[in-house]
Give the backbone structure.
Amino acid sequence: MTVAERTPLVEMHDISVAFGGLHAVQDVTIDLFAGEVIGLVGGNGAGKSTLMRVLSGAHPADSGEIKVNGDVVAIRNPRDAKALNIETIYQTLALADNIDAPGNLFLGRELTTRLGSLDDSSMEAETRKVMGRLNPNFTRFTLPVKSLSGGQRQAVAIARAVYFNARILIMDEPTAALGPAETGQVRNLVRQLKDEGIGIFLISHDIHDVFDLSDRIGVMYHGRIVDTVKKDNVTADDVLGMIILGKKPDEVTEKDKAEIELRG
Amino acid sequence: MTNVAEAAPISGQTQPPARSSLRDVLAQTEIDLRLFGMLVALGLILLIFNILSGGKFFQPTNMVTLAVQASGVAVIATGMVLVIVSRNIDLSVGSLVGLVAMTYALLMTDWLPNILGMNAEFPFRWVIALAIGVILGAGVGALQGFIIAYVGVPSFIVTLGGLLTIRGVIWYLSSGAAVSGLDPGFQLIGGGAQGSVGGTVTWILGVLGCVAVVALLFNSRRQRRRFGFALRPVWAELLLGVIGCVTMLGLAAFANNNFWPKGLAERYAAENHITVPAGGLLIPTGFPNPIILLVGVTLVMAFIATRRKFGRYVYAYGGNPDAAELAGINTRWTILKTYVLMGVLCALAAAIASARLNGATLDVGQSYELYVIAAAVVGGTSFAGGIGSIPGAVLGAFVMQSLAYGLSFMGVNSPGQNVVAGIVLILAVGFDTYNRRRGS
């Protein structure tokens, strides 16, 4: 069975989002299969993050349709998305700085005792388990995450997304704040999750990240998808050209190439 | 904190050294430094007034009166913490206290007997009045909370409007008159000799407090051991247990050193055919009812704030509203609930205030909003959101009330007390800000 015959994990059809008169995302269609990584690239303001915020429920689409496993779904808020096992690692990390790591990991999905009170001990124990896998050096389980380093905070945000059996994972610039060693860890994690059959949207500025990890690459330009291409069929230069010019490789003229040379 | 079970040594992190300074001792007992500091400040204030007054200030009668006076503000301050933590404010609490107090008075003097036919002999009529007041408070809170959370009008504006509107409604309710004559059962909420739990119950409560402290320590140690987390050293557990028990029993003993007024005791003796001994009949009052109410409210509110999902969401929203929303928390519903809670607390404070007055005037609860906000802020609640503790706010209320009471005890008039209270408020927050900046 080829990839094309399977039901995609996620299908987004003709999604549009406008902020006032600005069309942040316009008629975008994209799909994602289980065990696949799609790299979403594009310049600043190309609409990558907004498109993903639609899928994660952070911002409703003005029009368009989303299917998960072939069924049309309504994602009106983050709760809806989480109910569909769509987890997101936001670029801002979206951590409550005044709360400790277990509190953030379980935020909105706390473990409770039989009487409905917070079971902090269990949450801390679970956090120790998952962090032991992600970042074995992590020890500050009872301090507010405000006092953690960038890498540690990132680890908490990642742990939160993977702990709850995500089937669809959105990673918005997951390595932007990290050093080389931690970046390597995140890359290994992406491969591991992909092998477990999770579908991943990866937003990144780092073209190497994208080529290293993605199966397909979706290029966005001024709110539209230029093309979604198989990684093996393109070069990094092709992708850069798409990002800068907003054109498919075969539409690029000699004049365009000269312009890239000029800018590059 | 190192995990004992795995005992993984972390670079740059060593076991805390053995007790060498006060700070280390506090760290190992895990006593909250802020709370400890406030307790010390409160103790110093009382001590200074005691010295200034030549030892007259620190008497059970004074302390009990002071505590009862602080109780209303303290009750509301526990809720104000959650409101401020979630980046809002409630300016309407004083007016709401006045509205509910007037409602209690009108219910018991007019509406219950004249509309519902419940005359004064109706059993537990005051409980019905109290329930109606609590529902009214919750309803007004819910309305304001709805406008703030779902319509999106800033809380400052909504509750400022509430402050004005509700105070005006009080005037219309009573046609501008003061109302008095509450049910005897209701009056007991306000304290006083008969509105106290008495000597025996006070001792029982003291012992129960001891048991609770010990049980909490044991339970926490068991939980930590079960999950292999670091344990407090045994001496620290013992120290905490001893301090807790001494405090509980000390407070009970202190409250039992407050006796019924002579006239009341003699009347009581005559009615019950008790011969009055030579030194006068000494009937201990024990803890006054409003203080029992305050302790109950504080425990429940602290439990809600730290052990319930709702409390966790309030703090998460205060720390990062976007993060709370993205985590799937129903933030609007959470905010609305903080105002419902405020309304209920205002109704309880109104019960204390009107019971003490045996009625209601037009200005019950006037300026409460300022004292309540001051108590919360002096107790360490930050207007930046996400930071604040319930016990801190209660202590804050006691600090402010001790100053006011102490000054009036020394003969300083009310404008003078305000001058001091204002300066202390700014100093307390300034000191706190300085400490936090240094700490981070």
In short: Chain A has a mean pLDDT of 90. The longest strand of chain A covers residues 22-32.
